[in-house]
Amino acid sequence: MKKYTLLLGAALLLLAGCENNAPIEAEIAEHPTTFCNPINISYRFMKIPEGKGIREAADPAVTYFKGNYYLFASKSSGYWYSDDCNDWKHVFISDDVMPIEDYAPGIFVHKDYIYMVGSTHGKGMLYRSARPEKGEWELVKEIYSFWDPAFYVEGDNLYMYYGCSPVDPIYAQVLDLNTLEERSKVIPCFNSDQEIHGWERPGEHNELTRRPYIEGAWMTEHNGKYYLQYAGPGTEWKSYADGVYVGDTPMGPFTYAPNNPVSYKPGGFIGGAGHGCLFYVGENYWKAATNAITVRHMFERRISLYPTYFDADDYLYSDTYLGDYPMFLPTAKAVQPGQTRPEWMLLSYGKEVTASSSLDTFRVASIVDEDARTAWVANTNGKEEWVQIDLEKACDIYAIQVNFDEYGADQSGYVDGVYQSYKIYASNNAEDWYPVVNYSTKKTDMPHDYIEFKKSFKARYIKFQNEAYTVSSNLSLRELRVFGNGGGEKPVAVKELKAERDGQDPCKVSLTWNPVADAQGYIIRYGVEPDKLYSNFQVINESSLTFSSLNKGVPYYFTIDVYNENGVTKSCCNAKID
Question: What is the DSSP letter of 365?
Fold first, then answer.
C-alpha cells in the first residue's frame, strides 16, 4: 500500500509540474470595456525652468461636441478628444495660435462652435472653433474672464463664474450669449468657512490654519436646481476636493450642501479629486477631476474620471470608492450606483519584487506599495532592465496598469519622440516565460498605460521587460499594478467600529476598529444619513483613522468595508456621531 501511495504522490507532483509548465495564452482586448485612473494621456512637461521633466495636467473641462468629447486642461499645449472617453488624441496648439498655456481654461458650446478662454487677471480673448479636432480656431471678442472661468448656457444667457483666491469669493455674472455684452453686475456667491467646513482647511490632512484657496467653479442644472461646484483647499494635497452650493436660479442665492465635499478621494494609489467638471455621457454623469502627485513640484498633477450621481433627494456626489481600480468605461446606457466596476482586485500589493538593478534609494518595492508618489529607478534605460513580481500563487489576471515615473527627465513643453516600449511576460514557475503584452514597437507616450485582456489568464509571476524608454537615461516606474482575482477567501467583516468626534474641533473624528486577518485594507464610508454614505476614506494596513474634513453641526454615520485580493466584504457594523 505504501508503494502505491508513493507512486500516487509522484504522479501528483508530476501533474503539478506539468501544470506549472503549461503555456500561458493571453490576448489584449481590442475593444476594452474598462479603464483605470489616472487616465492614460500624454501629460505635457512643465515649461518653467524649475519644472523641466515634470508632467502636469489639471483643472479639466470636458464637453461633448459633434460626436467627440473634448478635454481641456491647464498647461497642456493643446487639448484631447475622444469618441469613447478612452482613446484620447492630443491636438497640439501653438502659443502663436491662441494662449493655450493659460491655466484652467473655460469652455462652452453654442450652436456650431466650441468656445474657449483661459484664466486672466482681467480681459481675456475668447476663441471659437467649428473643427477643434483640426486645431482651427478664430478670435471672437475680448471679455472679462478673470481666473478659473466657467460658463453655463441657458436660453440666450451666458452665465460666467470665476475665482481663485485664499481671500476672494466665487463670483458670477450674466452675459448676452450672442453679443457677449454684460447683462448683470458681478455678484459674490460664497467664500470659504474653514471654521465650519473642515474639508476646506489646507493641508494633506486638513490640519493647517491658514485660509484655503477657493477656486474651480462649475455649474450644473438638475431637476430645476443649480449646482455651483467649487474646489478647495489646495491643488497640492490629497485632500483636494470639490464642494457644492445649490440655488433656485443660476445666480443664486446659494445654500451649502450638507454632504460636502461631493468629490473627495484622500486615499488610495493616487489622491485628490478637486477642481473638475461634470459632463454627460448618454444618461450618466461623469466627473473629471484633478489628482495630486506633487513630489517634484506642487503642480505635478494628473486627471481622473469618476461616475457621478444625483440621488432621490437630489444630493450630488461622485463615486470615488476604489476610484483608481478598473472601472467600466462611460456608456450611453444608464448605469446605477454599484454597477460601475468589475470585481477585479489588486493582486500585486506588497508582493515580493526583484529587478535588474536599482539606483540609489529608489527601491524596487516601491512599484507595489500603492503610492503614486514613490518610484523604482533602474541604473539605465536599456533593454537589460526588468522587474518581476511574485504574486505568491497562480491568480486569474484580467488587467495590468503600468505607471511610469519621470526620474531624470529634462524635457520642457510638449515633446515629440517621448515614448515607452516594453514587453510583459507571465509564468507559473519563474523559468518558463510567456509573452502576454508586446509593445516593443510602440512609439506613443502613455505614462499610465492600461492593458485589459480579452479574457483572464492564470499566472503566478509577472515580468516587465524594458525595450525603449526615451523619457530619460533611467527607466523609472511608479507602480506596476496587476488586477484580477486571487482565488481565495474574502476577509471576514469588521465586527466593531467606534467613532468619536473631537470635543474641541467638531470637524475632526477618530475611528478605531478591530483588525481583520488577511485584510489588505479598509474603506470607511460615511455620510449625513444611513443611506447617504457617499464619502469614503481608503486605508491600508491600519486599524484607526483620524481626519478633519467633517462639517460642524452635521451628524454623521459611518460604516467600514474590508478587502483583499479576493474581494470586498461589506460591513455589518455602523457608528454615528452627533
Answer: G
Rounded mean pLDDT, 292-311: 97
Tell me which DSSP letter residue 542 carries: -
Is residue 80 left, alpha or beta, with left meaning phi > 0 and alpha meaning psi from -120 to 50? beta
Angle at 518 (CA atoms; ends 538, 389), nearest 5 degrees: 85
CA–CA distance from 151 to each of 70, 110, 160, 175, 275 (Å)? Answer: 15, 11, 5, 10, 14
3 state SS for 493-505: CCCCEEEEECCCC
User: What's the whole-model pTM score?
Assistant: 0.95
Cα separation, 84 vs 86, in Å, equals: 5
Give the mean pLDDT of 45-59. Answer: 94
Cell 466584504 belongs to residue: 569
Q: How far apart are CA 131 and CA 303, in angstroms?
A: 24
Q: What is the mean pLDDT of residues 434-452?
A: 97
In whole angstroms, what is the distance from residue 448 CA to residue 402 CA?
6
Task: Identify which of 335, 241, 291, 326 has the alpha carbon closest to the alpha carbon of residue 534.
Answer: 241
CA distance 562 to 567: 9
Q: Evaluate whether 375 touches 366 at the Cβ level (below 8 Å).
A: yes
What is the CB-side half-sphere exposure of residue 519 using CA atoms within 13 A? 24
- Check: CB of residue 442 under 8 Å from CB of residue 364: no
